[in-house]
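From the pipeline queue, job 12 of 40. The input is one protein chain; the requested action is below.

Action: predict structure.
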Amino acid sequence: MSQEDSFIRPDWVGSLWKYLRKKMRARDVELERISRVFEDPVELARYYVEPNCQPTNPANRHEDTDPATIFAKPVFRAIGEFLEGDFAQPRMGKNQLFVLSDAGMGKTSLLLMLKLQHLGRFWPSKFDCRLLKLGPDTLAEIEGMENTRRTILLLDALDEDPLAWGRVGNRLLDILQATRVFHRTILSCRTQFFPTVSVGSEEKDAGVVRVREFNCPV
């Protein structure tokens, strides 16, 4: 795969902040929406430090866990592999990724940085990217989207979605059903918000969230 076809290109770090600052000065509509709904994208890009990620919660690690299942890698490398992977049909969750962590560890910032990379044209031009804060109107907005097979959908803060409170399993199923037609979907949520959803804990199931027939990577 050529650099132009890659989602997470190696040259984005040094150029993104300068690009965003210029676009904000020109009062870019999408960047102003991001600033209003999420946070200042220019300041985020200026100070962002890429974290590592791993497919299992270190708090749940057991002494007899297979060391081969314990690893950490830069998060954009991991997400780049997910975005570029080729999945056979039926997908049933393989194209829908969960980003789980405790509060304040950077889930929203991660999704924002992915969206900003897209706006900065560091992604293949044939793909669109939509970033939404999960809420009562999200499914209606998703249903109105076009060209879903060429769209990366970023859905932030399931734990802050009022329609998930007290019924997270049913809400997740509705979201997964609605987003299964997208090229990829990435959903963020606090780890502790998953008490009623099966999260793989055995070695063979590490890094998987199960919601009915959907088996989604983490």
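Job complete. The beta strands are 52-53, 73-74, 96-101, 128-133, 151-156, 184-190, 198-199, 208-211, 214-217.
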